[in-house]
Amino acid sequence: MEKPEGPLLPSEPHPKVSIRHLDYLNRPKILVLMIGTISFAANGAIFPAFGVLISSVISLYYKPPAQLKNDMRFWAIILVVLIIASFLVTVAQKYFFSITGSKLIRRIRLMCFDKVVHIEVGWFDESAHSSGVIGARFSIDAVSVHATVL
């Protein structure tokens, strides 16, 4: 009699899951992923922009005092705008990637639960396949996927 397929036991080796497969499972949330990716790229551009801004501010100190006062106001406003943009982009990045990660984990848990529900009843008679072991496995796998996605 063949061993029925089901969730892996903790002693069994974990199968390699490709990022491509996770991308396939995340396909329904592609728009949210794109917004998160754009936010991620904008967040990466913030620090070089800060560097250019600081170098421009430092160069102002070599100008006459009348021009220094006007230029400093301009660069102070630009600095405040850049700080607000940095805050908004960071929040957007975390928010959109958290949404996609949570939906992916939910989808994976539902797929695993569906597999467990359709396994033969005799498989659950073994102590290694108790509800506690299966629940722990769902939790561990979800945390692993969550760490990979985020």
UniProtKB/TrEMBL annotation:
<dbReference type="GO" id="GO:0005743">
    <property type="term" value="C:mitochondrial inner membrane"/>
</dbReference>
<dbReference type="GO" id="GO:0015421">
    <property type="term" value="F:ABC-type oligopeptide transporter activity"/>
</dbReference>
<protein>
    <recommendedName>
        <fullName>ABC transmembrane type-1 domain-containing protein</fullName>
    </recommendedName>
</protein>
<dbReference type="InterPro" id="IPR036640">
    <property type="entry name" value="ABC1_TM_sf"/>
</dbReference>
<keyword id="KW-0472">Membrane</keyword>
<dbReference type="Pfam" id="PF00664">
    <property type="entry name" value="ABC_membrane"/>
</dbReference>
<keyword id="KW-0812">Transmembrane</keyword>
<feature type="transmembrane region" description="Helical">
    <location>
        <begin position="30"/>
        <end position="62"/>
    </location>
</feature>
<feature type="domain" description="ABC transmembrane type-1">
    <location>
        <begin position="35"/>
        <end position="150"/>
    </location>
</feature>
<dbReference type="GO" id="GO:0090374">
    <property type="term" value="P:oligopeptide export from mitochondrion"/>
</dbReference>
<keyword id="KW-1133">Transmembrane helix</keyword>
<dbReference type="InterPro" id="IPR011527">
    <property type="entry name" value="ABC1_TM_dom"/>
</dbReference>
<feature type="transmembrane region" description="Helical">
    <location>
        <begin position="74"/>
        <end position="97"/>
    </location>
</feature>
<dbReference type="InterPro" id="IPR039421">
    <property type="entry name" value="Type_1_exporter"/>
</dbReference>
<dbReference type="GO" id="GO:0005524">
    <property type="term" value="F:ATP binding"/>
</dbReference>
